[in-house]
Amino acid sequence: MNNDIIGKKIIEDYFGYFPTFHDCEIVELKFNRDKNYAEITLYVFDTAKETDDNGHFKKQKECFISFEIRNLEDMLLKGFNHQNVLERIRFVKTDDDKIKIYLDGCFGLSGYIKAEKVSVLSLKSKE
Q: InterPro entries this protein is in (predicted)?
């Protein structure tokens, strides 16, 4: 399904693969009713095999990725809080040839957004 994400090569080039977005954080989510679109910005990182002094995997390739979601059709979102950590994001093609973006939350916001298309707006390195 990731083939239906316009501009996904930007993400693949940065990480060397298309991530699951495990432990990423939703830092911004906005909707525009007149233009019928949403924009979501995520704080995303990869982890190294090495651990820090506390035993946590070291973060690498930290960045902010913004997606534009066009022609919204349906959504269900719940649990917004100060951090909004996701277990993963799934991009699933629906029977009616739309995209359903599942935000599988583990702390904070979770739910789904169904739309006609998804594009990568930007990827900005934090490093």
A: Imm50
Pairing of strands 25-32, 37-51: antiparallel
**Residue given tokens 């990725």 in the structure block:** 65
pTM > 0.90: yes or no: yes
Dihedral Cα 13, 15, 16, 19, nearest 10 deg: -110
Q: Cα–Cα distance between 103 and 88 in angstroms, integer? A: 7
pLDDT band at 70 (very low <50, low <70, confident <90, very high): very high
User: Is the Cβ–Cβ distance between 99 and 115 less than 8 Å?
Assistant: yes
- The residue ranges of DSSP E strands in the chain, in sequence order, are 5-6, 25-32, 37-51, 57-78, 85-93, 99-107, 110-125
What's the pLDDT score for residue 78? 97
CA distance 47 to 63: 12
Residues 90 and 105: their CA atoms lie apart, in Å, by 11
